[in-house]
Specification:
Elements lengths: L2 H10 L3 E10 L5 E12 L3 E3 L5 H7 L2 H21 L7 E4 L2 H4 L4 H11 L9 E6 H5 L2 H14 L2 E7 L6 H6 L4 E4 L1 H4 L6 H17 L2 E4 L5 H10 L3 E2 L10 H9 L3
Parallel strand pairs: 2-4, 4-5, 5-6, 6-7, 7-8, 8-9
Antiparallel strand pairs: 1-2, 1-9, 2-3
Bound molecules: guanosine-5'-monophosphate (2 copies), manganese (II) ion (MN) and sodium ion (NA).
């Protein structure tokens, strides 16, 4: 069976699921949010990670219905956690450029939140955008971001440092946080260039009033260094891998 056909069936058969990876505060280790990461639970292939199928979803346009499913699922889960008395859950959803460029993307996000009884200003759905997505048609990007921002949606820039963000654009986008790409975190303690880049991103974030989250934090040493450098939060295997919903619920219930 062609992978494309399998992916269409996966959507129809509801074989996609979201795993969640906590973002934690650097000082107190409290969970301050989480990133939703798409997984495909295939009968034939087992658990498939997105690196293996996102490119094809994008090529075929299937990312549109799948991306909408992701948003709905994240909203459904935010609703469920709220109903279970877990407050202030903040779910970050990754967006593809194709999705973001859909006519009235902003309206469709707000509609999905409304359908789940979520007030965008109260119950954080955060959207993770890449630098290349942001810089493709800046005028329209700002328009879409502003519409959603005014309703209370927050934005972060994913994989920050790997793209081409001009600092002047950064100031014009209503962004709340920068996520330092994990490639700079990996060798932080031994590589002076990485250390310089990370410290520059933290300084930039601070001067623009953005929170800075480090990705791919795997060791206590990296965590301690990032903390000394003034990083606000971290995400990575040190605290938790991306986990299924039941485990995430457990983590939330037991977060300091
Ligand atoms: O979860 P890792 O677990 O393997 O994710 C690999 C890549 O897939 C990451 O770059 C991540 O941004 C992307 N990704 C994960 N979930 C989604 C999603 O729901 N939508 C989009 N567009 N990308 C996703
Ligand atoms: O591109 P994006 O940042 O959205 O994707 C995050 C990717 O990083 C996912 O594939 C996720 O599973 C992976 N990831 C999360 N934490 C760690 C970590 O501590 N180490 C490594 N190597 N990968 C991680
Ligand atoms: Mn991401
Ligand atoms: Na990233």
């Amino acid at each position: 069976l062609k992978l494309e056909t399998e992916l269409r069936q996966a959507l129809a058969r509801n074989e996609f699921e979201l795993h969640y990876q906590p973002k934690v505060d650097m000082d107190c280790n409290k969970i301050v949010g989480m990133e939703a990461l798409l997984r495909w639970q295939s009968a034939e292939r087992g658990l498939v990670t997105p690196a293996e199928f996102i490119p094809l979803l994008e090529e075929t346009g299937l990312i549109l219905p799948v991306g909408e499913w992701v948003l709905r699922e994240a909203c459904k889960q935010a609703r469920a956690w709220q109903d279970a008395g877990i407050p202030d859950v903040h779910i970050a959803v990754n967006l593809s450029s194709l999705q973001f460029r859909q006519p009235d993307f902003a309206g469709s996000v707000l509609k999905i939140m409304q359908e789940h009884g979520l007030d965008p200003a109260m119950n954080g759905i955060e959207l993770e955008l890449t630098e290349s997505l942001l810089l493709d048609n800046v005028a329209r990007t700002i328009d879409t971001l502003n519409t959603l921002h005014e309703a209370g949606i927050r934005f972060s820039i994913d994989d920050f440092g790997t793209g081409y963000s001009s600092l002047s654009y950064l100031k014009r986008f209503p962004i709340s946080s920068l996520k330092i790409d994990q490639s700079f975190v990996q060798d932080l303690s031994s590589n002076r260039d990485d250390e310089s880049i990370v410290s520059a991103i933290i300084a930039l974030g601070r001067s623009l009033g953005l929170s800075v989250i480090a990705e791919g934090v795997e060791t206590a040493e990296q965590s301690a260094q990032l903390r000394r450098m003034g990083c606000d939060g971290m995400q990575g295997y040190l605290f938790s891998r991306p986990v299924p919903v039941a485990e995430m619920t457990y983590l939330l219930q037991n977060s300091a």
